[in-house]
Amino acid sequence: MQNSPQQSEGLQRNLKNRHLQLIAIGGAIGTGLFMGSGKTISLAGPSVLLTYVLIGFFLFFVMRAMGELLLSNLEYKSFTDFTYDILGPGAGFFVGWTYWFCWVVIGIADIVAITGYVQFWWADVPLWLPGLVCILFMGLMNMLTVKSFGEMEFWFALVKILAIVGLVLAGLYLILTGFVNPKTGVQASFTHLWSRPGGIFPHGIDGFFSAFQIAVFAFLGIELVGTAAAETQDPYKNLPAAINRIPVRIMIFYVLALTIIMTVTPWDEVNPKVSPFVNMFTLIGVPIAASLINLVVLSSAMSSANGGVFSTGRMLYGLAQNQAAPKIFGKLNINGVPAPALLFSCALLLAGLVLTYQEGDIMEVFTIVTTISSIGFIFVWSMILLAYIKYYKTQPEQHAKSTYKMPGGAVMAWVCLGFLFFALCLFSRDADTLKGMLYTPVWFTILAIAYLLKFKKK
């Protein structure tokens, strides 16, 4: 097997299992839930719950395919390793760079979201200021040791989890006590999920499909679990546990939280341009609580962006080690951190500041950049499935010995590929997502040219 982007002996591997698990959970609970759920609710109504369940179901099988491949050869540290080995260096090059690019784009989306959250308190704040402060903070944080980063991200993730649990408990209390919205006179009730005009599918199947893009974005990052668990001392135990538990937790957080939101505030009263987490507490007349929730979602977006910077730095460092990126990105600072790679990734986040000025609507910008990252991740997930299909066909003995087989084997892998292609086609239905979709081929064109030039040199 060739050296792959994730095989980096100079980096410090000091993250404990509790760090890795909470980083994985926290990375998936970010702007997709706190900022994007308002738009998905307005597009799909109560059927948005089915959207999350459906996407989560198929992505679980993608992760099972990844898990079987990682455990088939313990030299594999992530999906970039087995795509290099099974599908060839070209596939590994595209997957590695696309994954790096996607996390940069997610970071840009988080910078855009952070600007919106700060404007909740200070509407007149300069658009460039919140994002710039966040980028400087993340750059400093990532220059610390890996263990320090893991500890801080652990608490970031824990705050997000506790906030969601608190929201669910508060919502249940309002429902059980028969809370009536003082502005609309509507009483909190589970019947809002099916009794409002239009029922469960108020905008028909078109509305249901329109919510897919933001919903897909909500699950970006769950593949980090496999990468993290593969680096633990007992991957045969920790990797299956991580894959089997994390998707269930994520689905509970999303589905249960959105159920509570639409029960307290009927779906047709949810403002798509405002985070429903903040809006729910504002509607019940508790502005202090709304500010606290806004602080939580602000820290959530910062945590997600910070985790993305960490991931991009590591990926860029690994690509440089594999001679697939400039050599300078393969250097470490005194703390064993890939400083040049981290600084470069942070610098690219400045694009988020530009987007907030070029577009008047924060949510429109958010939709564009999340569409680009969602398409990139669909490509990465598809390559994982293609690698599994080839592995299943060319290494039947290895598959037979596997103790963690993907349910359904190659047939289920093809079904998942079909679903991902279907989800990709749905992105063209909305004007905002179509705009982001049209920008995406530019990246793959640049990547193809770069690879061809690299190949010719060799």
Automatic annotation (TrEMBL):
Gene Ontology CC annotation, any one: plasma membrane
Domain Amino acid permease/ SLC12A residues, every copy: 19-427
Principal localisation: membrane
Keywords, sorted A to Z: Amino-acid transport, Cell membrane, Membrane, Transmembrane, Transmembrane helix, Transport
Compartment list: Cell membrane
Listed transmembrane segments: 20-37, 49-71, 92-115, 127-146, 158-180, 200-225, 246-265, 277-298, 337-357, 363-389, 410-430, 436-453
Gene3D superfamilies according to UniProt: Amino acid/polyamine transporter I
Membrane topology of this protein: Multi-pass membrane protein
Gene Ontology BP, a term: amino acid transport
Name this polypeptide is given: D-serine/D-alanine/glycine transporter
Gene: cycA_2
